[in-house]
UniProtKB/TrEMBL annotation, chain B:
It is a multi-pass membrane protein. The chain crosses the membrane at residues 35-60, 72-93, 113-132. It comes from Candidatus Segetimicrobium genomatis. InterPro entries: Cell_shape_determining_MreD (IPR007227). It is found in: Cell membrane. The lineage of its organism: Bacteria, Bacillati, Candidatus Sysuimicrobiota, Candidatus Sysuimicrobiia, Candidatus Sysuimicrobiales. This is Rod shape-determining protein MreD. GO terms for biological process: regulation of cell shape. One of its GO terms (cellular component) is plasma membrane.
Length: 279, 168
C-alpha cells in the first residue's frame, strides 16, 4: 500500500526534485561573473554542434544571398549612384583624417601614453541565440586563431560585444544588448562617464550619468577604457533620449547601438598583441 | 536505449536548426521553438515523469547551446513536459486540432515560466507588455507549425517503441 502511494506520487516527487535542481543550477549561474559557466560538458556539446551549425549557416547564407540578388537589382542601381558620391566625399574626409591621425600620433608619443595594441581576426556568425531576451552569437573563430575570453568584438560601424566562451574553432560573443552586459562609457562632447547596460531590447541604457551632465539626443557614446575588456574610444552608439534616473540623483540616456546587431554576419575580434594561436 | 538515442539525435538537429535557420525565420522578431513540441509529444505519449525528465534534458542542452544562463530552459521545458503528461490523460489525443492548441498553450506556459524565472533571479527587467507580446507570438507561431511536427514525431515514437518490443 505504501508502495502504491509512492508510485502514485512518484511523478510529483521527480518533478519537484527536477525543479529544485534547475533552480539550483540557475542561481549558481547567476552568481558567476558572466552569469554563465558551462564547464567541460558544455564545451563538449558545443564542439560537436558548432561544425554542424557552421555548415547549415553557410547553406543559409548562400540561399539568403541568392534571394537578395533576385529581389534587390533595382535598388542596387540607385544605391550604386549614391555610394559613388559618398566615396568621393569620404576620400576628401580621409585625407583630412590622415592629417589629424598623424598629429594625434605625434601628441601621443609626446605624452608617452601607452595604449594596448591589437591585431584583428575576422569572424563569421554561425549561430544565434533564438531566445528573445538574451543576445549571444556563435562565431567561427576560437583559441585556434588566437581568440580568448574577454576579447572585444567590433564591426566597421561600432562595438558588438566581447567573447565569453571560446574553445577550439568557435567562440561565443555576448552582445552589448544582453542584460548581462555592462560597459564603462563616455557620453557626448562633455565626456560624462556612465555605465551602458543591455536590457535585452534594441536600446542600451546608460546609467549613473551626473545630474549636471550636458547630454542631448544625437551625442556619440564611446567606451571609456576603464575595465579590462574594452579599449578606450570604441564607438558604442548614439543617444536617442535623456531622462532623470532613480531618485533624480543621476541622469539616464537611451542609446541606439552603432552596429546593426540584428543583421550581423561578419565581424572583427580585437586580439591583444602577443596572444598566440593554439594548435 | 535506442529510443533515447533517437531523441538525442532529434534534439541535436533541432538545436542546430534553431541556432541557424529558424533564427532567420522570425515573425515580428520572434522565432519558433519546435523543441517545445517535441517535449509535448514525449509528455503526452509517455506520461508526466518521462515528460519532465526529457524536458529537463532538452532544456539544459538548449541553455548550453543558445548562450543563456543554464537552468532557465531546463526549468521551463520540464514544466512543459510535466504538464503535457498530466494533460495526456485528459485531452483526446486523436483530435485534429489538439496538436496546434496544445502546442500554443504549452509554448505560452514555457515562455511564462522562463520569463518569470529570469525575472526572479534579476536577469530580465523588461516591460511586462513585451513579455506578453513575445508569449502570444511564439505560442501562435508554434501552434502553426505543430500539426506536421506532432504527427511526424508521433509516428517516429510509435516505430521506435515497436522496434524496441520486437527486438526483445
Amino acid at each position: 500500500m505504501v508502495l502504491d502511494a509512492f508510485a502514485r506520487r512518484r511523478q510529483f516527487v521527480v518533478f519537484i526534485v527536477l525543479c529544485i535542481l534547475a533552480l539550483g543550477v540557475l542561481t549558481t549561474q547567476v552568481r558567476s561573473p558572466e552569469q554563465r559557466r558551462i564547464g567541460w560538458l558544455g564545451v563538449a556539446v558545443q564542439v560537436v554542434l558548432a561544425p554542424m551549425a557552421s555548415g547549415l549557416s553557410r547553406i543559409g547564407d548562400v540561399v539568403d544571398r541568392g534571394w537578395a540578388l533576385i529581389t534587390e537589382i533595382g535598388r542596387l542601381r540607385t544605391e550604386n549612384r549614391r555610394l559613388a558620391a559618398e566615396v568621393a566625399r569620404l576620400r576628401e574626409e580621409n585625407a583630412q583624417l590622415q592629417d589629424a591621425a598623424q598629429e594625434a600620433q605625434r601628441l601621443r608619443s609626446l605624452m608617452a601614453v601607452r595604449q594596448q595594441s591589437f591585431r584583428t581576426v575576422s569572424a563569421r556568425v554561425i549561430g544565434r541565440d533564438p531566445s528573445h531576451w538574451f543576445n549571444t552569437l556563435l562565431i567561427d573563430r576560437g583559441p585556434r586563431d588566437g581568440v580568448r575570453r574577454n576579447d572585444p568584438v567590433v564591426t566597421s560601424e561600432g562595438l558588438v560585444g566581447h567573447v565569453i566562451e571560446a574553445s577550439g574553432g568557435w567562440a561565443r560573443v555576448l552582445l552589448v544588448l544582453d542584460p548581462r552586459s555592462a560597459i564603462g562609457v563616455l557620453v557626448g562632447r562633455s565626456r560624462d562617464a556612465g555605465v551602458a547596460e543591455g536590457q535585452g531590447q534594441p536600446m542600451l541604457r546608460v546609467k549613473y550619468l551626473s545630474r549636471d551632465a550636458e547630454i542631448q539626443p544625437g551625442d556619440q557614446v564611446v567606451t571609456a577604457g576603464l575595465g579590462e575588456i574594452y579599449p578606450r574610444g570604441l564607438v558604442v552608439g548614439t543617444v536617442v533620449d535623456v531622462s532623470r534616473g532613480e531618485g533624480d540623483l543621476f541622469r539616464e540616456a537611451l542609446v541606439r547601438p552603432a552596429a546593426d546587431l540584428n543583421h550581423l554576419e561578419e565581424m572583427v575580434i580585437l586580439v591583444a598583441e602577443g596572444s598566440q594561436a593554439s594548435r | 536505449m535506442i529510443r533515447y538515442g533517437a531523441y538525442l539525435l532529434l534534439v541535436a538537429v533541432g538545436l542546430v536548426l534553431e541556432m541557424t535557420w529558424l533564427g532567420r525565420a522570425t515573425i515580428v522578431g520572434v522565432a519558433p521553438d519546435p523543441l517545445v513540441i517535441f517535449v509535448m509529444v514525449v509528455g503526452l505519449i509517455h506520461g508526466s515523469e518521462e515528460g519532465a525528465l526529457v524536458g529537463a534534458g532538452v532544456g539544459l542542452l538548449q541553455d548550453i547551446v543558445t548562450g543563456v544562463p543554464l537552468g532557465l530552459g531546463m526549468l521551463a521545458d520540464q514544466v512543459v513536459g510535466f504538464v503535457a503528461g498530466l494533460g495526456g490523460g485528459v485531452v483526446y489525443i486523436e483530435s485534429v486540432w489538439m496538436p496546434a492548441v496544445s502546442a500554443a498553450a504549452l509554448t505560452s506556459l514555457r515562455v511564462g515560466v522562463w520569463a518569470l524565472a529570469a525575472h526572479l533571479v534579476g536577469l530580465l527587467g523588461g516591460p511586462l507588455l513585451e513579455v506578453v507580446r513575445v508569449d502570444l507570438v511564439t505560442a501562435c507561431y508554434n501552434g502553426l507549425i505543430a500539426i506536421p511536427i506532432y504527427h511526424g514525431l508521433r509516428s517516429l515514437d510509435r516505430a521506435l517503441v515497436r522496434f524496441h518490443e520486437e527486438s526483445r
